[in-house]
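pinging the channel bc i need a second pair of eyes. not urgent but kinda urgent?? the chain im working w is below, pasted from the shared doc
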Amino acid sequence: MVKLKSYSVHTNQGPYLQINEDDAVVDLKNKLYLIFDGFGGSNIGDKAVAQLKESILKFYTKIGGDPDSTFPFYYSHKYLIEGNALVNSMHLAHANLKKENQQKDLSSRGGASCIAASLADSILTFASTGNCCGYIFRRGVLKRIVHPDSLEALSEDSYEIQFRTTPMSGFGLFDDLHLNVLEHKVIPGDLFVLMTDGAYSRLSNDEIKHIIEVADTNDGTKIDKINELANQRGNLDNQSTIFLQF
């Protein structure tokens, strides 16, 4: 069994916006890690994210790790109990938000992209929707393992990808919740990095890797450097990043 040695969580409104529609959670008791990128505007996207976060945490902590749990939306023998609980909690959160959105006009409907991860023994299960991004840094190599479901996937050109991060899936707005699910075997020394597009979309993998490898700074400072570089490149969006060091 691997243990989380340290973590760092930063979320802020970015250099220009007054409201932060992002959010990030590290729940040490339940070994649950969440990052959100809300959309819909001020007092809409942030409220949608708050509702989604509450729904996922409440439902997951109720059934995660319980082999006798009933999974109302989804079950796959491919994934651990915790992974199935995570997927079900996200489907429930989506259903609740979508039901609420249907009572509103289009301009008042909120939603969010998300990466959610749960740890059981040495398996980290990821479930993602929308345009957030996840990496693993292992033995000096940075690799993207959670890919955004965005317009970026439709282009072979990596130039100025910040213009192609529009999410093609997400909570709250679409009839069905499209999730990408994967399990990852964790070994001691692994660093997992979860980011919203305000942090990653203006940086290359090599630039993120270089910041991670700076030995004389802590993880919080490294996240600050990621944000600073993204902002220097013209970022206008909210920014959230989670570092999980095993």
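so The two ends are 11 Å apart (CA to CA). and Residues 41 and 110 are 8 Å apart (CA to CA). — does that match what u expected or am i reading it wrong
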